[in-house]
Amino acid sequence: MTKRVALLPESSRRVENVILADDQFALPGYRVVPIEEGVFCEAGMFLNEADGLFYRDTDSTTIYPVHDIDAVG
After folding, report:
1. Which domain holds residue 28?
2. Organism's domain of life (predicted)?
């Protein structure tokens, strides 16, 4: 079955890429972390092993993109 996964370099919490892969996919030097349905994840985010979510910062405080409302108008 094809699913969305995050590729993280071994010994890193930072997402390098998000791809579609089957259950047997493996890539030397990387951890392949399944992304659960409804979970937001993109390259550059950090995995929090405790809750399985991906955050914009290493302190696990921000998930979604932060937009500067003043810049929008």
Report:
1. 3-64
2. Bacteria
